[in-house]
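[09:14] KT: can someone run the structure on this one? pasting the chain below
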Amino acid sequence: MVCSPRVTFFSTLLNHCLSLESLFSVKIVHAQLIKLSLCNTNTFLGNRCLDLYSKFGTIKDAFQAFDDIRHKNVFSWNIYMRVLISLDDIKGARQLFDEMPERDVVSWNSIISGYSSSGFHDCALRLFSRMQTFGVTPSDYTYSIVLSFIQSAHHGMEIHCNMIRNGVDFSSVIIWNSLIDMYCNHGVLDYAFGVFLNMEQIDIISWNTLIAGFSKSGYKELAYKHFNIMRTTNHLPDAFTISSIMTSCSSSTSTIDQDLSTGKQLFSLSIKLGFLSNTILSSAAIDMFSKCKNINDSIRVFEEINNWDSCVCNSMISSLVDNRLEVNAIDIFALSLNKNIRPTEFTLSCLVSCSSLFLPPVLGTQLHCLVVKLGFENDSIVSSSLVEMYSKCGSIDSAKTIFDQMGVKDLISWNTMILGFTYNGKTMESLKLFDELLKSGPTPDEVTLYGILLACNFGYLINEGLLIFYSMENEYGVTPKDTHLTIIVDLMIKCGRLNEALEIITTMDSGLNGVMCKSILDVYGVYGELGFIENVAEILMNLEPMCVLPYIVLCKAYEVRGKWESVARVKKEMKDRKIKKVVGCSWIGVKRNLFDFKESEVVHHGGEDLYLMLRLMMWDLDDEDLDMLGS
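[09:31] RB: done, C-alpha cells below
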C-alpha cells in the first residue's frame, strides 16, 4: 500500500514530535489532522497520535484519540491496552483484551506482561497456555516474559521443553540469556552452565547473567573464575560485571580478609576502566566495604561520588545501619531529602527497622508520617517494617492497626505480626492470628511456625505447642530445624517433661545447645540429679565460656548438698576465668541521642552534673530547715 504525500508529511511531523517529546507539538498536529478528517479516515495516523499520547501525553488525550479512530485495527487495540496496563488497570485491560475483534502475538504478550507486572503470575501462565490453544505461536519475547516470573525450576524446565517442541529459533541470544537467568535464579546452576556452553553466540549479557548467578548462589570461586575467563575473550567487563563480583565478596566471615583484598582489586579495576561514576558500581563498592567491616572505606567512596541517587544513598544508609551508626544514617537521609532525592521503599524500610531499637521512638513516628506523606503506606515491605517497629517499641495496638489496614498481606507481614504478639506477651492473640492465616493467608513457612511455637513456649501451652510441632511436616511441609526443636525442648523442660525432651534431643544432629542447657539448669539445676546437672553445666561452659549461669547453679547445687569444697573450687575457677555477672542495662532516647544506664551504675552519662545539682538542692533544703528552726 502506497502512502499519499499528505500522509507521509504528517507522519514525518509526528516523528519530529516524538524526538522532541513535545506534547504541545503533538496536539497541534493532531488538531490539524482532525480538521482535515485524516484521524477518522486514516487508521495509521490515528494510531500514531494514540501512540504518542500513550508515551508522554495525558490519559484523557489517549482515550479521546482511541475513540476518534473510526476503523480500528489490531495495532489500535494493542496501544490502548498498553495504556490501561500502564495505569495498573489490569481488570480494564483484560476486559478490553476479551473484546478485541482480533489478536496477534503482541496482544497476548501485552496482557501476559501486564498480569506478570501486577503480581498475578498464575493468571499470566494460564494466558500463556491459552494463547497456544488458540493457535498463536509464542515469540521470543513471550518466552522471555514467562521465564522471568516462573516459581520453580521444574516449571522452568517445562517451559524450556515447550520452546524446543515449538521449534523456537535458538539463534536468538535473548532466549538463551533468559534461560540462563531463570536457572540461576532457581539455583540450578548446572543447567544454567549447560545452556551457556551450548550457545552459538555469547554477548556481554550472557557473561554477566552467568557470573551474577554464581555470585548470588554463593559460588564466589566460580564467579571469580569465569570473570577471569571472560577477560581473556573479546568481551570486556562492564560496570554490571564488576558489581556482580563485588556482591560475592564478604559472603563468609571466615574469609573476610581475602574478600576485602579481592574487593579492593575489583574497585581498582573499576577506577581504571572509568566506572567509578556509575552509581550501580559505586553502590556495590559501598556495600562490599561495609560487609567487610571497613565502613570508613565505604564512607570515602560515598564522599567521592558527585551525583547522588537513591541507589547510592540506600547503600550508604543500609551500610551505616548495619554498622550500628544509625544517627549517621539519619543524617545521610536528611541530606538526600535536601538534594530532592525521593526515598524509596527500601530506604524507609531500612530506617524504620532500625529506629525501633537504636534511635529515639519519636524518630520512628516521624518516619511513619513521611511514609504516609509519600504514599508508601500500602507497600507491604514498608508496612511490615512499621509493624515490626511498633511491636518492638511495645505499641502492639498500633502495629495491629497498621497490619489490619494493609491491602495485600504477604507472608512476611503475617510473620511480623505473629512475632510482634509473641514478643509482647500476647500469646493467645498469636494463636488466633495463626488460625486466620491458615484460613485466608498464604501457606506458613518455617518462620511462621517458629513464631507460633515461641508463643506456645512463652505461654506454657504445651498441648498446643506439641500439636503444631508434630504436624509441621505433614500439615505444612516444613521439616523441623534446630530452632524449632530448641523451642519445643525448652517448653517441655519448663513443663516438667524432661525425659520426652531428652528423647527429642537425641534426634538432633547438634545435640544439646546453649538454650537447652540454660533451660535445664534453670528448672532442675539445684535439686536435680547432681551428675546430670554437672554434665549439662560442663557442656554449657564449653558452648558459652563467658556465661555465668553454670557456675551459679553449681554453687547453689553444692551448697544445698553441703559440698563446700566443691563450692570453693567453682568460685576459684570462676575467678581464674574472669567470669563476671552480666550487667543489665536500659536506655532512653533524648532528641538525637541514646543514653544507656547500667545496673548499679553510680556515675552515668551526665551523672556528675546531676549529682552536683542534687547537692545544691540538698543545701537549699538544709538552709530552709535551719531558717525554720531559727524562727
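[09:33] KT: thanks! The first helix runs from residue 5 to 20.
[09:34] RB: yep, looked fine to me
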